[in-house]
Amino acid sequence: MSRLGNLGSRLHHGEIGYDFIKNRRIWYGVSILITIVAVLGLAVRGLNMGIEFQGGAVFTTPKHMSTSVAQAESYAHDASGNEAIVQKLGDGSLRIQIAGIETGKSDQIKETLAKDLKVDPEHINADLVGPSWGEQIANKAWQGLAIFMVLVVIYLAIAFEWRMALAALVALVHDLTITTGVYALVGFEVTPGTVIGLLTILGYSLYDTVVVFDSLKEQTKDITRQTRWTYSEVANRSINGTLIRSINTTVVALLPVAGLLFIGGGVLGAGMLNDISLSLFVGLAAGAYSSIFIATPLVADLKEREPQMKALKKRVLARRAQGAAQGESLEAEPAGVTAGDEPESEGAAPATAAAVGPHNQSVSRGRGRGRPPGKR
Asked: What pTM was estimated for this model as a whole?
């Protein structure tokens, strides 16, 4: 077995682990700090909305243009009177995007650009988007995002419980805020591809979160019938048990996305790949972080406020104090609730956990087993 596989096995069986729940306030603070930076980026710089959302025109020149990006930006500004975004594509052509212009003015801009760039106007391709169409696209994007959030909360509330649904919603908002904040700070253009990327990373984030929630739900069945572990300790075991799976899933997903972002968008100059690849790259990393450091610790915080969990914690601590007074080792073990734990009635004195394993049977009950029929 490889070292990573051995590490994953030891984490899953509770032999080692990191106390995510105990150190949750540190990670809450890190998330709040990152979120504040993202919100400030959105407030100060704002999003660079593409023409699909605000209307405008995109002019694509022939291949192998010798004009530099700076010169093309100057030509486009002089022709339209507005700021232009120019990208040099992999085949040497220029993509000139001018937002906020009327469709009737596009022909005049095209003629002026052709004259400045010294090319035939027929060789410049123009794609036009009206302001009303861009507004409709923006509204549809927000509606789709809102519907997605509502459906996710309803599903998680039914499949798990409302606390897990609330924690997952907080993690999703956390991921969206960080991703859009990075877009504002970097200045990348927001296009429909960006919206598709955001919806995709929300799915990845939910996948990691649901994996941990499912493990937590399984290990906390009848948790109040034992006195070995609190809810937070079992939640910490669930995170550690699925940690390697989350890391592997995220790394495998990030590698091809990094290829799109750094090679496709950076080296090859395929600017249209930047729209979706940046949202995927940042969102996948933020989603893996939130599912481990935000969602499950938040569920533990909410569950520990329940009267049953408060009573369970008191019984667990009382049992450990009693064991310590008697010289027994009753430290909290990083393991889940097992079937061998004995139920306890409310108010009963803490009892030692039953041993897990095969039970001895009397000779009379085991007599005759394994014999052929008719020879008893």
From this structure: 0.71
